[in-house]
Amino acid sequence: MGEFDLIARYFTRPTTRAVLGVGDDCALLQPAADMQLAISTDMLVEGRHFFADVNPFTLGHKALAVNLSDLAACGAKPMAFTLALALPRIDEDWLAAFSSGLLALADAHGCELVGGDTTQGPLTICITVFGEVPAGQALLRSGAQAGDEVYVSGTLGDARLALDALRNHTALPAELLAPARARLEQPTPRITLGLALRGVATSAIDISDGLAGDLGHILQASGVGARIDTAIAMNLMASCAHPLWATGIVSFEDQLDYVLAGGDDYELAFTAPASARQAVQAAAQQAQTPVTRIGCIEKTPGLRLIDAQGRLLKRRYASFDHFI
Ligand code: ADP
Ligand code: MG
């Protein structure tokens, strides 16, 4: 099998929304009138973003999920995506599983594969997603205002719990590891929530590098600060009905790190005025995605993390940086 058979067999399907898909020099998309295109790219590199022996079905899912998560954070509706793939060799079992995981999530969101590039090289997956959003309605990082409240969707910290357990070969009880591993390997992009938050949230970001760092991007872009209740945030781990640290499986400090700086959560952090509390809950209900209020936006720049006793935490969290 060569490059073109591979593309034809695993990555070519008829398109319905796109004007033109795989097979020509360019794909053609037609955004509806008064819609803006939202475009985002994310790359996954073996050894950096996933283990070499990771299940290819979940890898296909995750490669698209992390990209859809960026559309969600902008309140954009997925339209199409391109896939640039470097493969060390052609392994048909791997390709079949990878493309099924990828295309299952694509179908679930009506996001069509319209093109890409395929080359030989160290396993690397680069996806660009295209979404649409009514002109002027995209959720940005820069809209948070003093007095707004800070929310986060879903659960935090579980992906990092799984990553540490897999990396260090720690024996976690199966009932803890299974849901945590699902969060690491098959994150759920919060597309429906992002759409429901249009006109409600004043700013939004998706949490890929940890709550503290990613919320920090909102604070910086908006020129404001925030106060976050870490006691509430710490209870957002899914893998535990009660505080995980109380079981002795991880320390209090580790759980705090998982939740505030673990990364790979792909939840939305967003702000909304206090007057929008009901609208936020209505959006959460519509999207069937729980959201939790974890703090408020303040005028004074900086992120202030408060513990259960109301004390300011000394620990600082920088945003994840591949080069530091
Ligand atoms: P070109 O030489 O013009 O760059 P290619 O020969 O690389 O075109 O690709 C042929 C067609 O297959 C193009 O439409 C391209 O978008 C598509 N394509 C290539 N690789 C992939 C892939 N991994 N997934 C989806 N489409 C792909
Ligand atoms: Mg090409």
Any overview of this molecule?
The chain is α+β, with helices and mostly antiparallel strands and 324 residues long. The protein folds into 2 domains: 3-134, PurM-like, N-terminal domain (60s Ribosomal Protein L30, Chain: A); 149-306, PurM-like C-terminal domain (Phosphoribosyl-aminoimidazole Synthetase, Chain A, domain 2). The protein contains 10 helices and 10 strands. The chain has helices at residues 3-11, 56-74, 92-108, 158-168, 174-185, 191-196, 211-222, 230-234, 252-261, 277-286; strands at 35-45, 77-87, 112-120, 124-134, 149-153, 203-207, 225-229, 267-272, 291-298, 302-306. Strands 6-8-5-9-7-10 form a 6-stranded mixed β-sheet, sandwiched between helices. α2 packs parallel to α3 (92-108) and α4 (158-168) packs across α5 (174-185). The chain is globular, with a radius of gyration of 20 Å. Residues 7, 11, 22-25, 83, 85, 113, 115-118 line the site of adenosine-5'-diphosphate.
